[in-house]
Amino acid sequence: MSLNDMGRAAKDAAYALATAPTAQKNNALSVIADELADNQAAILAANHKDIEAGRKAGLPEAMLDRLLLNEARLEGIIADVRNVISLDDPVGSEIDCRVLENGMTLSRRREPIGVIGVIYEARPNVTIDIASLCLKTGNASILRGGKETFHSNMELVKVIQTALEKTGLPAASVQYIEKPDRELVSELLKLDQYVDMIIPRGGAGLHQMCKQNSTIPVIIGGFGISHLYVDSSADLQRAPDVIVNSKIQRPSACNALDTLLVHRDVAASLLASLVPVLNEQKVSLVATDEAMPMLQSANDVRAAGEQDFDTEWLSNTLGVAIVDDVQEALTHMREHNASHSDAILTNDLAAAEAFINGAGSAAVYVNASTRFTDGAQFGLGAEVAVSTQKLHARGPMGLEELTTYKWVGKADYLPRP
Amino acid sequence: MSLNDMGRAAKDAAYALATAPTAQKNNALSVIADELADNQAAILAANHKDIEAGRKAGLPEAMLDRLLLNEARLEGIIADVRNVISLDDPVGSEIDCRVLENGMTLSRRREPIGVIGVIYEARPNVTIDIASLCLKTGNASILRGGKETFHSNMELVKVIQTALEKTGLPAASVQYIEKPDRELVSELLKLDQYVDMIIPRGGAGLHQMCKQNSTIPVIIGGFGISHLYVDSSADLQRAPDVIVNSKIQRPSACNALDTLLVHRDVAASLLASLVPVLNEQKVSLVATDEAMPMLQSANDVRAAGEQDFDTEWLSNTLGVAIVDDVQEALTHMREHNASHSDAILTNDLAAAEAFINGAGSAAVYVNASTRFTDGAQFGLGAEVAVSTQKLHARGPMGLEELTTYKWVGKADYLPRP
User: What's the predicted TM-score (pTM) here?
Assistant: First the structure.
């Protein structure tokens, strides 16, 4: 089937999905969960092929571990599908409703976006994850996974499509681009006649490529330098815990702390109590010339170079700089791509508000860790992606962000403009 | 100044605007209104140059009339600016706020999008209109108007920038691309480092060009075939008024009716009472073979060809087709690009809901005219654009749609993921 035919089939499926009752969509999800359990052997066998091929191709162990499915991981995936069943269906809910002076009742009603194209790398759980979130919100999806998990993905999509057919929904509600040709990705990005939104799930290169080439709106996300600014009014006793949590809890995450900014008045005092904890956690420091003398007791510290404060570390490294006040902190953040998650520690209300309003970040925290930026932490029930662009959705995206709205005006024939 | 320099200046201005108090922004708007009045002579003289040039270039009279500024029109523009002052500033308002189980207070706070690029044609009022709406919402704007109104736009932007400087806001809050080179438009569409959103205001060609070439999110809008479906349960006495209003009130508008779909059971009866009114209004009919025999008394009727139901008439022409029921109406609409404004006339609740949920339109009406799709009618206070895409905003866009949101989490140091 050509990509164009897939697009047309997806659009047709989207019409059916858009008006499918929640009970029918939940039933499909329930059957998907059951079928995943019933087909465990086939799925693990397919995944084994991928792992073997990956090993032959010399993929690093960490990568192979990301690709791997086993009984426990498959059970986790199945549990995630059942969790999606339990979430509220946003379709049909109304954002607002008013009665106009002329008597018309005007509301904005949520509905599915339509067809969503998803381009992702490596981990096979994304296949089930995104397919079930799209299905719950009445969207058709066209998936394109990485070649490293080709066999796993094919098996998983087969399970999904079987379940869809069993429950009276079009199999084309979830489609997978099988052919390995790379140009199919470019073609998908220009299939604006049928596809309404593109979600890339992967590295910066993938996002950049989608942004440059897509004629379809793309959800760009996941990048940006995360900063934590310790104001002079901050509680210095409690500050180290928040800093360490932000940096260390999961250094490879996009919301992990990259740069610590400290108010001049409290820099010596804070860093004196912080360095021993950072040493213990094996954190490497990269500091401005001004901060260097305060970090002499650090086990691993070097002077910062030109690019260091523009680097998303994704590791145990932490940048350190001294600033005069919240405005200088904000200026530093502006110059160094603060766009994801940033925090201020302060007990000064004006400083907190200046930071909140002045930071260019999708999520801003007062006296809390940058690590909170997460759909589950935010109580969204699911996380489709984390957007760092400003249109449509920003920050963690839940089910509502997979919907659009239409205006619904109800009158009694007579109102006239 | 290069476009890149303009982008950087706009970004800097956007940071200042983002935290400017509403009073300061309103003051700037007030001074803009005053300066427009004070500089009436210079503005009309500049516009006179454009009109003369247009006349020499052989522009049609209707076009010249669109370009023309006179005292009355300038007064209208000034009144529009004063109206923007009276609107609520959405910046800083919160969309929602919740307290998480761990005690964090989490809200979504509206803030400006940043830098907005606007590409428009002909009418010089757009310059003031979009600049004042962007300014009110704390966004910097980079404007690119049509060459036909170059002198008018330059004069208007000079007035705006003078007013900005007088009120302590950066002049670069509103910038205009002066050089006529067409490639600057393509360059603007790829200035994603600085520009956050592109709004095209013009014909389908301009929108298509932006969609194909922009690496920045674009608000696509204004197109789509508008349908009105008369259900068998409709009040046939009142139907003609709504149909005539939809078609005739302003045939050149994008929400004017293109296609009338009539339920088979009431087709003969409805069309018998409708045709005399359509004759009176000089409406030309384009009908399916099935509808033709019922339209014998029409003054101007012909059989529809292949493309007719895909044509946005923007004139006194109306397509007519007979359908079996609401589902067949929806199928027709799907096949013929219903994406803007569509209406059902019915007294049947199930038919109304089926139509609302099944129509792919930005705005759907029950027993009302398609002409209602308009920011002023919807009580939005201003209309930035009418979006027919599904992301970010759909249908008429007001001030809120010129904002994004950030997540704001406030805690007391202690909550832990």
Answer: 0.93
